[in-house]
Amino acid sequence: MAIGDSTRVNTNIAALNALNALKSVNRNLEISQLRLATGLRINEVADDPAGFTISKRLDARSRGLSVALDNVGTAKNVLSIAEGGLMNIQKILIQMKEKVTQAKSDTMGPNERTAITEELDQLSEEIDDIVAETEFNSVPLIDGTYTGKIFQTGEGVNDTLGFSISSDYDAAALVVDKTNLGDMVSNATDAATALTNVNTALDTIASELQGIGATIVRLTFKEDTLRVAITNTESTKSRILDSDIANEQLKSTRLQILQQTATAQLAQANVAPQNVLALFQ
């Protein structure tokens, strides 16, 4: 920085130095006050080009992870709907087993067997209704067509989870329809075959429920992982992008004091050349 000579009045170097210092202080004070007002350390790319780029990438990742978290929650809802439908079918099958077990005994008379047949037929129809009504966004879940589905469980292209319910669970597919159940309880011998059909259907439902439950558990772990990843990403982005309010307040106070002293020094520097007039007295 150049040092002025107070005996040279054509150019006031001291005043220029004080003016430059004042402008620098004013510029830094404006930056500090903007950071205090917005809470952001980077308010434009020029503040920190590299930091701005990194923070935007982190922001994009955080938003992607947030959407993935929603996707996982929705996927769990889909599986819960399928699980609910299958559990209701399971309850019906258990009731069917009770009735068929009764029919397998020769203590049942014709009237009792007819009543059991009618009840089993109604239960078979209810299974078909459950299969038709178990859907999500108009997509059937347990009729054997819900196959090859991909759940996006992360923000990356390959962060996916495949899932399928490839079996049809209506009464005919489970071999508990009217032909294979209701019509077979007219005598104890055929009722034994019907009981085998019900037991097989129960095992099939239990196996599918186990698979759905395991997938829901896996998705729950993915939820926990995504929440931690979102928190850590936001923390990293905040350290780069957000301003330290306490530090900026201290800096702003210091700059305000410097602004006052620089203004005072500029005023003194502008008056100093007048001292040369004393030489003409």
Walk me through what this model shows.
With about 280 residues, this protein is mostly helical. It folds into two domains: about 15-40 and about 245-270; about 70-240, f41 fragment of flagellin, N-terminal domain. Helix content is about 65%, strand content about 5%. The protein contains five helices and four strands. It has helices at about 15-40, 50-105, 110-135, 190-240, 245-270, and strands spanning about 135, 140, 145-150, 160-165. It has a two-stranded antiparallel sheet. Strands 3-4 form a two-stranded antiparallel ribbon. Strand 1 (about 135) and strand 2 form a beta hairpin. Helix 1 packs antiparallel against helix 5 (about 245-270) and helix 2 (about 50-105) packs antiparallel against helix 4. The longest helix is centred in the first third of the chain and has 55 residues, at about 50-105. It is rod-shaped, with a radius of gyration of 40 Å. The mean pLDDT is about 90.
